[in-house]
Design brief:
Blueprint: H1 2-17, H2 26-41, H3 48-80, H4 82-96, H5 99-114, H6 118-126, H7 138-185, H8 197-221, H9 229-239, H10 248-259, E1 263-264, E2 267-269, E3 272-274, E4 278-279, H11 289-318
Antiparallel strand pairs: 1-4, 2-3
Length: 319
């Protein structure tokens, strides 16, 4: 009961305050460790197997560390006093969620578009996506923003929530370590093709169930958001694998269907054209208002996920 309340309070704190910005934020520490570890272990060896083994060692070591440290800290704090342990674990859970920050960053793009400042919108967008943004028009900026909300709903909200409900803050931090590793070294380029391969596959495994759960949550709340439930289900079933990642298109397909638009497709990354299949049917053009619609969909799905997770924990407690 207490463990469930801790997660709920952590989620609500994120909804109210957003992700805190300070030098020793856990995700920043993860990023620092990954950067230092990569410089130490990654090299231009001709043996691909060595690159893979070093990358696997770094991934396993950091995930283990970021599980063990909060586990041990909370263990001792709870032994000192239960209230102290509860307060610190709520603070941990609060920093694992990214619901409000995802909305806030996307709404900065919306505000720039609303003010007619396409340059500012491109700049704001460049901070939350990996593609080139300098030549995007208003529709392309809006589409990219919708896509990043939909895709990051899994690893910023639902996956952390699921792992928190299963194993508390230590497992939540272990997941964030997996996700941060993938975002930093899980690239299929010459530099990280083998060194980051294990991290990328580990992230695929960790997000396999959460990505599909996220999609189902989004479909379930489409009527509450005034969106097209039938089209969301249709596009989800048809296009949920239209992505190199087995997980990314799960939520993007639902979002495309619910909004009755087409997402994804070809984009430029570091000046190079990357060809991708489209997701959804272009029943209408994407507009800046779709950013707000997607955020409503994301928020409603988050609350439903929290409700179901709480109910599941209560059921386990009763049984």
């Amino acid at each position: 009961m207490i463990a469930t309340a801790i997660i709920v309070l952590g989620f609500m704190a994120d909804r109210v305050f957003g992700d805190p910005v300070y030098p020793f934020h856990p995700v920043r520490l993860m990023g620092w460790c990954i950067s230092k570890g990569s410089k130490l272990l990654r090299h231009d060896a001709h043996f691909k197997a060595i690159q893979f083994i070093f990358g696997m060692f770094l991934s396993v070591f950091l995930v283990a560390i970021f599980f063990a440290l909060p586990f041990l800290l909370l263990f001792f704090l709870y032994r000192i006093h239960i209230v102290l342990g509860i307060v610190v674990e709520i603070a941990f859970c609060y920093q694992i969620f990214a619901t409000k920050s995802l909305k806030d960053e996307s709404m900065k793009v919306y505000s720039a578009l609303e003010n007619g400042d396409i340059e500012e919108a491109r700049l704001r967008l460049s901070r939350i996506v990996g593609r080139d943004t300098q030549n995007l028009d208003e529709e392309e900026v809006s589409k990219a923003t919708v896509e990043t909300i939909a895709e990051n709903f899994t690893d910023g909200v639902v996956a952390p929530m699921m792992f928190l409900f299963i194993g508390g803050a230590p497992l939540g931090f272990a997941y964030k370590a997996v996700n941060t590793l993938d975002s930093m070294i899980g690239y299929k380029n010459e530099k990280y093709a083998y060194f980051g391969k294990f991290a990328a596959r580990l992230d695929d495994v960790a997000n396999f169930i959460p990505s599909r759960l996220s999609a189902l949550l989004m479909i379930a709340v489409t009527p509450l958001c005034g969106l097209n439930t039938g089209q969301a289900w249709k596009i989800f079933r048809r296009d949920r694998y239209n992505h190199k990642s087995p997980n990314s298109a799960q939520t993007e397909s639902v979002c495309a269907g619910a909004l009755e638009v087409s997402l994804s497709g070809d984009n430029y990354y570091n000046g190079k054209l990357v060809q991708k299949p489209t997701i959804g049917d272009p029943l209408r053009a994407v507009t800046k208002e779709d950013i707000k619609r997607t955020n409503r969909l994301m928020y409603a799905s988050s609350w439903l996920g929290l409700l179901l997770g709480t109910a599941a924990r209560m059921l386990v407690y009763v049984l």
